[in-house]
Amino acid sequence: MQLRNLLRKIESYNKNADFELIRKAYEFADKYHKNLKRASGEPYIQHPLNVAFILAEFKMDTESIVAALLHDTVEDTPASLEEIEKEFGKEIRELVDGLTKLNQIKSKEIRDAESIRKLFLATSSDIRVVIIKLADKLHNMRTLEYLSEERRKTIAESTLEIYAPLASRLGMYAVKAELEDLAFKMLHPDIYETFLKKFSNTKKERENDIKKIKNIIEKKLEEQKIPARIFGRPKHIYSLYKKMIQKKRTFEEIYDLVGLRIITDNVKHCYEILGIIHNEWTPIPKEFSDYIAMPKQNRYQSLHTAVMALNQPVEFQIRTEEMDKVAEEGVAAHWKYKGLEIKDKSFDKKLLWLRELLRIKKEKLPTQEFNDFLKTDLFGDEIYVFTPKSEVIALPKGSTPIDFAYAIHTDLGDRCTGAIVNGRIVSLRHELKHGDIVKILAQKEPKPKMDWLKIVKTTKAISKIRKFFREHEKILVSKPKKTEAIKEEISKSLFIVDNMAYKTKIAQCCNPLPANKVVAYLNGRIYTVHNENCSSLDSKDKSKIKPCSWNNIKNFELTLNILVKERIGVLADIINTIASTETSILKAVAKKPVKERAQIMITINFEDLEHLKEIISRIQKLMGVISIGLEPKF
Predict the structure, then answer these.
(1) In a domain, 397, yes or no
(2) In angstroms, rounded to a whole number, what is the distance separating the alpha carbons of residues 629 and 563?
């Protein structure tokens, strides 16, 4: 690689670039790297030159090119950040600083983790940092064969775990594909070679099939006067391997062995082309995705479908020219050049995960929590769900309504009591699916639960729940003695026993309700609450019976266990009656009727004792209601 090649490449897309500054950066880097060699034996300056050239292929701005030329000087030579700022300005200093590893930390494991953390936090301020890093990683992977086997595998593993997913998150699919294939080749050379051989064996047949299908589509599009470019999609070995493993299919059963990409001029034509393909061949069920109407979080847009054509599955991607540019180059495709390089300041807002980086930077998460964020929120599989107003919310696969609530706003997460998903009440443990429409049920006051930490997936939800409990009163449950009852925080107890709050359960023999006077019987270490006149108390040890009263508790959750005579519409009547009291219904379950009687269990969150009395009173007036029991949730 020669400097003139780099300058020629930059000039091809940006004649107004600061070529003198680029030359100055090259000379600076060449001077400091003068006596250094790469593992291949070539002069070290070849690496920053190649990284800069990769960025030029992305059509990046002058500052990015300069930072690429300088990116290893502070880390590997006596050059300092102060010198970089003096010679090239503060903006380039910050880019180089974000790319410089933390060599002063002795533990390699901690050093690597903190260097990655530093990279990401720098990215939250300037997206160019990570684009340069990916170019750096790509060139290193292309020249990996000169390193020891152990070092090669270590670098390949980190590439698959961090840098390829990062390229995907940025929408830079061409970089992602090359990084994955290079790493896969290094980690599993035998499997890689087997795949190459299979590709080679089927290449001629695939090319013939693609040609036949292409001719059919071109003829149909010509008839409809729809402009389009059609070509076979490049094959990405690692993605095929992953698909085989995940879907438990053979090499021959993978749809995108035969795949075509169709590029047209506008969105309307994209959908028309989809219709033509589906009219010509039979679509394969569950293999259609509309990423135009619902783009991925990294701005990727395209129509994906698979059909049976020529007795085999064939995959199509249909998109516009602009969508194709973004699909290949991702965030790098967004840079504009009008005399001077201009960055669209609103663009970062479209990359939702950058908001999380900004939050994490502000809150200074511990290293382990930050690593959890990388694995789960940033690099994990995603789902896209909707608010009732059709706003798209991206979440890690396996997320719950609680994660959704915290993604909307911390306050909504703290007040979350349940959710309605696709019109159906679900529990807080419900696992959200791609395309779900989610409405959060919330109480007036914030009251998250520590148990939520066991079910939430997002780092934001975890950190906000922990923060709430750090800032609020701790849960007051004292460790009991052998014969002592378990004390309970007053705000968590439905009853007050002998002027104290204790953990209680409601007696099934008499099912006391808020309108009843009650007493408590010490059964082991938990008080059982009975109606004052319950006949079962006659045979009990009177010394264990204590005065008890209903606690005027606020925003409490419990389950109503309702026994009814079987009739059509009884469940709907009960739910509508509860809803008429402006009560949050968290869950509703009806058991199969036995002897014309049905058991209905509805979990609610009521405001106070009077509210609960009103709910029960209205239910008791419904036709067919036999009895109501309470099951508090602890």
Answers:
(1) yes
(2) 8
Q: Which one of 331, 353, 388 terminates a domain?
A: 331
The pTM assigned to this predicted structure is 0.56
Model confidence at 475: pLDDT above 50: no
Do 52 and 142 reside in the same domain of the chain? yes
Give 537-570 pLDDT, tens digit per residue: 988 889 899 999 988 877 788 889 999 998 877 8
DSSP secondary structure code for residue 437 in this structure? B
Last residue of a domain, one of 512, 535, 550: 550
Q: Per the domain annotation, does 10 fall within a domain?
A: yes
Interval 452-471: pLDDT, tens: 988 888 878 887 888 887 77
Q: How far apart are CA 114 and CA 493, in angstroms?
A: 45
> In this structure, what is the dihedral angle of CA atoms 103, 109, 112, 114, given to the nearest 10 degrees?
-90
Whether 455 and 405 map to the same domain: the answer is yes
Distances (CA, A) of 455 to 132, 134, 377, 430: 37, 34, 15, 9
18 belongs to a structural domain: yes
Which residues lie across from 338 on neighbouring strands?
Answer: 340
Distinct helix (H) and strand (E) counts, the chain: 24, 22
Mean pLDDT of 495-511: 86
Same domain, 212 and 133: no
The domain total for the chain is: 5
Q: Which domain holds residue 564?
A: 556-632
Q: How confident is the model at residue 251 (pLDDT cuts 50, 70, 90)?
A: low
Q: Is 179 inside a domain boundary?
A: no
Quote the CA–CA distance of 459 and 403 in Å, as a whole number.
Answer: 9
- Whether 393 and 407 map to the same domain: the answer is yes
Nearest to 380 by CA among 162, 178, 184: 162
Q: How far is CA 142 from CA 71, 99, 145, 234, in A?
A: 18, 19, 8, 19
Q: What's the farthest any 2 CA atoms get from each other in the chain?
A: 101
Beta pairing, strands 625-632 & 556-565 = antiparallel
Q: Share the mean pLDDT of the chain.
A: 81
Handedness of CA 148, 150, 152, 158 (dihedral sign): negative
Same domain, 444 and 526: no
- Reduced 3-state DSSP string for 98-132: HHCCCCCCCCHHHHHHHHHHHHHHHHCCCCHHHHH
What does each C-alpha distance from 447 to 442, 452, 464, 508 come to in angstroms?
A: 10, 11, 12, 29
Question: What is the Cα–Cα distance from 457 to 430, expressed in whole angstroms?
Answer: 12
CB atoms near residue 399 (< 10 Å): 30
In angstroms, the Cα distances linking 482 to 68, 315, 526, 547, 548 are: 68, 68, 12, 22, 22
Task: Please state the three-class secondary structure of 203-229 as a single string.
Answer: HHHHHHHHHHHHHHHHHHHHHHCCCEE
Is 115 in the same domain as 51?
A: yes
In this prediction, residues 614-621 reach a mean pLDDT of 90
Tokens of 49: 């030159």
| Nearest 10 degrees: Cα torsion 341, 346, 349, 351 | -40
Strand blocks (E) in 106-197: none
Q: Enumerate the active-site residues.
A: 75-76
